[in-house]
Write a structure and sequence with these properties.
single chain, alpha/beta, Rossmann fold, 2 domains, 5-stranded parallel beta sheet, 7 helices
Length: 247
């Protein structure tokens, strides 16, 4: 690879990081620019990546500290962006519950429900087990993920007879759509939301579950924007999973 190609790749990575800063509403400084010094550019990219993680950790702590501490059973809380949360605890779940019992009320009248789990992966695994039990068939998951532990868990699900497809552009009749708006890996790449919406609309599954891991994204209106472009939301359950321990 010649120096020109390396420089172009650096520009692309720099642009992606700047876009992530903007998407996450983090402090943004226009003074720093890339130059023709490739080594200096690599140092700047590394520094910016580190700054994004530090600023996000600081911001998410400020946003969620009041939500996650000592939340009482059946508490209703609004976050900084006005989204409401109705809390229950994972210790109240058991394998004898019906799906509607887990949520606290019938699916038909359901608006929102929030469970606190001991970890993000605990939330992911329990939610998927719950869905599988509810539909009484194997899961057909289409996913756009970066976090290694989630990928490993999907491998385990695949070994149990569930179908896993990690290409969001493939047209399959998935009943579970799992995505990270900003992928939790070294690339910090983003999920193509338009491709995701196309897959949801084209799926012929009788009931669909759309699960978002928004750990790397602090906005709560992603689902609202997606819902506007989905042809039929009456047979869709939306789940937003957030980990307070990442980064």
């Amino acid at each position: 690879m010649n120096n020109t190609q390396i420089y172009l790749n650096q520009l692309k990575e720099w642009k992606n990081l700047r876009q992530i800063q903007q998407e996450m509403d983090l402090p943004f400084c226009n003074n720093e620019k890339l130059t023709d010094n490739l080594i200096s550019n690599e140092q700047k990219i590394y520094k910016l990546n580190k700054v994004i993680r530090q600023d996000w950790r600081r911001k998410i702590g400020d946003l969620t500290s009041s939500i996650y501490k000592s939340t009482l059973w059946q508490t209703n809380i609004s976050d900084a962006q006005g989204a409401e949360y109705h809390y229950s605890y994972e210790t109240l779940l058991n394998d004898e519950n019906a799906f509607s019992d887990l949520l606290g009320y019938s699916i038909q009248g359901m608006h929102n429900k929030t469970f606190l789990f001991s970890s993000g992966m605990n939330a992911i695994s329990n939610i998927l087990y719950c869905f599988s039990s509810f539909i009484r068939e194997n899961l057909n998951i289409q996913a756009s993920v970066g976090y290694f532990e989630t990928k490993y868990f999907f491998k385990i699900l695949s070994s149990m007879g569930n179908r896993i497809n990690l290409d969001i552009k493939c047209d399959i009749d998935a009943n579970v759509f799992y995505f990270e708006p900003i992928k939790y890996d070294a690339t910090l790449s983003v999920t193509n939301i338009d491709d995701l919406i196309d897959r949801i609309n084209n799926s012929k599954a009788k009931i669909k579950f759309v699960i978002m891991d928004s750990t790397m994204h602090n906005r709560t209106n992603i689902f609202q924007n997606i819902i506007k472009k989905i042809s039929n939301i009456r047979n869709i359950v939306f789940c937003d999973i957030r980990s307070g321990l990442k980064l």
